[in-house]
Amino acid sequence: MDEEGLDLLFQAGRIAARVKERVYGLVREGVRLIDVCEAVEEMIESEGGKPAFPCNVCVDEVAAHYSPPPGDFSTVPPNALVKVDMGVHLEGYIVDTAISVSLSGEKQQLVLAAEEALRAAVRFIRAGVRLGDVGATIQQAIQKAGFKPVRNLTGHEISRYSLHGGASIPNIAVPDPRRIAKGAVYAIEPFVCPPRAAGEVVSADAPTIFRLDARRVPTEKLRPDERALLEYIDKSFRGLPYSPRWLSASNVPDPLSVHDRLVRAGRVHKYPVLVEKTGQPVAQAECTVYVEEDGCRVLT
C-alpha cells in the first residue's frame, strides 16, 4: 500500500472511531433498528466517509449480517444484547469496527469478555505470528472469562474495495501455519456466547445484505430495468456490500421489485443472517488493525 492509500486508510479509521463513540448513545429499549442503522450511516457520511457496508444491528442470538430492510420497523427489546457493526471507506480503503451494548446486567459479562479477547489479540498481533496462534489467544481469553467463542465466525483480512480480502482470523485455536503479514490490514472480531451455547452460528431468515460481482453477471438476458439497476449497483458500490435501502436513489422504477427478481435469479450474492445455533445471546467486539514489525496499530 502506498503512502496515499495509507493516509486514506488512517483517515477512514479516525472517522470510524469518532462515529463508534457516538453509537453507544443510540442503543436503548424501544428504538427502531432501522433508525440506528440510518443514523450510523448518516454520521459516517457527515464525517466525510462512505459506509463500506450496511450498518448491522444484531439483537441477542442474531450474531451477524442483519441490517433492517425497507419497511422493517422492529425495535430493541427489553434486556437486549445489541451488536452494532459498521464500516467506513475512503476511495475503497476500508476499516471495520463493532461494539456490543447490553441492556441487561447479566449479558454485560459477555460484552466484557468479547472486549478483553479483542484486547488480548491486539496485544499479541505482530508481523510473523501464526494465524492459528491468534485464534488460540482469543479462545483462551474468552474461556478464562467463563464463556465460549463462536467457532465458525472469524475476523478477516481487508484490501482495497474488498471487505474479505484474504486470510481469515480465527476465534479458536486452529492448525493454520500461515503468518500475519507486515503491512496487512485485518479486522479482528471475537464473538462470545454462554458456555451452554453451541458456540456455532447457522443461517436463518431472508438475507438483508447483498453484493454484486459485475464480472460474473451475464447481461445479455437481462430486462432493461434489471440492467439499469445492476449498472447503478456496480457504479455506486464497486463490489462492496449494500442494502436494498440504498437503491431508492437509482431512478429505476420500483427498484425493490427489480432487485427481488435479480436475487431470485442468482444475479447478486446474498449474505445470510447468522444466528447462534441454540438461540443463546452473542456479544461481539471488533477493530481494524494495521500490522507493523513489532505490533499493530489500532485504526478504529
Automatic annotation (TrEMBL):
Listed GO MF terms: initiator methionyl aminopeptidase activity; metal ion binding; metalloaminopeptidase activity
What's the domain of life for this entry? Archaea
Q: Where is the Peptidase M24 domain?
A: 9-195
The EC number of this protein is: 3.4.11.18
**The protein's required cofactors:** Mn(2+); Fe(2+); Co(2+); Zn(2+)
What processes does the entry annotate via GO biological process terms? proteolysis
The UniProt keyword set, sorted, is: Aminopeptidase, Hydrolase, Metal-binding, Protease
Cofactor: how and how many bound:
Binds 2 divalent metal cations per subunit. Has a high-affinity and a low affinity metal-binding site. The true nature of the physiological cofactor is under debate. The enzyme is active with cobalt, zinc, manganese or divalent iron ions.
Listed GO CC annotations: cytoplasm
Q: What class of enzyme is it?
A: hydrolase
Q: Which InterPro entries does its entry note? A: Creatinase/aminopeptidase-like, Met_Aminopeptidase_Type2, Pept_M24, Pept_M24_MAP, Pept_M24A_MAP2, WH-like_DNA-bd_sf, WH_DNA-bd_sf
The UniProt entry, under Pfam families, shows: Peptidase_M24
Glycoprotein found in the keyword field: no
User: Which reactions is this enzyme annotated as catalysing?
Assistant: Release of N-terminal amino acids, preferentially methionine, from peptides and arylamides
Matching entries from NCBIfam families are given as: met_pdase_II
The UniProt family comment states: Belongs to the peptidase M24A family.
Role, per record:
Removes the N-terminal methionine from nascent proteins. The N-terminal methionine is often cleaved when the second residue in the primary sequence is small and uncharged (Met-Ala-, Cys, Gly, Pro, Ser, Thr, or Val).
Protein name in UniProt: Methionine aminopeptidase
